[in-house]
Amino acid sequence: MTEYKERFETLDTNVVHAGAPRPNIEGAVVTPVFQSANFLMADEATYDAVRYLRLSNSPSHLALHARLAAIESGEAALATASGMAAITTSILAFVGQGDHVLAQKTLYGGTQSFLDEDAPRMGIGYTAIDTADPEGPRSWEKALTPKTKLMMLETISNPLMEVGDLQAAVDFAREHGLVTVIDNTFATPVNFRPLEIGIDLVVHSATKYLNGHSDIVAGAVIGSEAHVHKVRHLLLHLGGSIDPHACFLLERGLKTLVLRVTRQNENAGRLAEFLAGRPEIRKVNYPGLPSDPGHAFARNLLSGFGGMLSFYAESAEIAEAFLGRVKIPLHAASLGGVETLVVRPSRSSHLGQTPEGRQRLGITDDLIRVSVGIENPDELIADFEQALAGGA
Ligand code: PLP
Q: Pick from 111, 272, 291, 297: CA 20 to 30 A from residue 53's CA?
């Protein structure tokens, strides 16, 4: 009987080895791709145990789940077909008709649109809360209703890189019996492991840093056995299961997570400092900058400030000209790969929102988001310098 139980002391070792099949399948060093939709019956006692790809229980899935659980310090994990499948299935596993959610005021555009457009059709309401509000629990209490069941958070918000008082939010949620779900995509477990501060469920767009090579779309949900069980049960019905080849690529990408993110933290820190000193730039959003409003929370919570930053150019024209002049970064949506990407959130992740909604959140046409890659930092900074120096 193959087991997927191995777990080691450190994240560095777990990203390479945790959950690998033992004994190795046919002696293979790497978990093979189990590209078979169905498997021979083996007297399974429950429906969940019947081996079928939608039920997410092939050896490709089991090895990946064990590794994902280990790297986020969870008991159990579930890989999904996309980050949005992870997020929506996790929310819907804990709220239903008539229920209410507290949601951090800036969330990834897809999560925001789901709460604004789809959740209400299912009778699910939400109220936005500011996790960085100095009033803290006193202001969040005003948003509570008797039907509030869940709090939806992001470690580092997209695209303004805000970091709130997550420990206070978790304590508040505990006190009021709310399930906490956090999107840890931007921080990654290299910089923050939310389960260790009492969050119930961590979700990821594994499309980003966990995979790291911009070649799959995938998601992950990690938490206690009981919480993940509820999400898995719903995923089997909603059908957002990941395919085995994507499992294989994600498991491969995970092996270099610590190396990549460590370098991305360093590169982003250097680039943020450089950009903060440029006359063409009005403001840099990066929690690693001491001047950043989220810096104090980030310093307490995170072990690194991440590879994502954004900045407001002095004008939308400067932003536009910059995008046309940079040579190393690619002008593309998404993030978390080894290559540096630049994009305007108003034209990508938040394009689905109304112009007024974007304006309210500060997502204007002069805002550029940078997903910093692993390139040589001096060469990268020199390229940003030439692209900005050209003006509008
Ligand atoms: N969460 C964050 C923070 C994201 O940036 C994204 C995608 O950009 C998602 C979730 C959605 O992930 P996916 O595109 O894998 O469904």
A: 111
Cβ(219) to ligand 1 under 6 A?
yes
Q: Chain-centre distance of CA 209, in angstroms?
A: 8
CATH number of the structural domain spanning residue 338: 3.90.1150.10
Distance of alpha carbon 26 from alpha carbon 45, whole angstroms = 27
Q: In this structure, are residues 387 and 322 in contact, taking their beta carbons and an 8 Å threshold? A: yes
Residue with tokens 């050209």: 390
- Number of domain units in the chain: 2
Question: Does residue 136 come out as left (phi exceeding 0), alpha (psi in the -120 to 50 range) or beta?
Answer: left
Residue of 152, 158, 182, 213 with the most ligand 1 atoms within 8 Å of its CB, for mutation:
158
pLDDT at position 361: 84
Regarding whether 306 and 249 lie in a shared domain, the answer is no
Cis peptide bond prior to 146, omega within 30° of 0: no
Same domain, 119 and 59: yes
Do 210 and 267 fall within a single domain?
no
Q: Is residue 2 part of a domain?
A: no
Residue 189 is assigned to a structural domain of this protein: yes
pLDDT at 290: 97
Mutate to test the pocket of ligand 1, among 160, 163, 185, 210 (most ligand atoms within 8 A of CB): 185
Q: Judge whether 3 lies within some domain.
A: no
HSE (CB half, 13 Å, CA atoms) of 255? 11
| Closest listed residue to residue 370, CA positions, set 353, 348, 392 | 348
| Domain boundary, last residue among 205, 228, 254 | 254
Please write the tens of the pLDDT for every residue from 274-288. 999 999 999 999 999
Query: What averages of pLDDT result for each successive group of 10 residues across the chain (392 residues)?
Result: 96 98 97 97 92 97 98 98 98 98 93 95 97 93 98 95 97 98 98 98 98 98 98 97 98 98 98 97 98 96 98 96 97 97 90 84 94 98 96 78
- Flag whether 228 is in a domain: yes
CATH number of the domain residue 96 falls in: 3.40.640.10
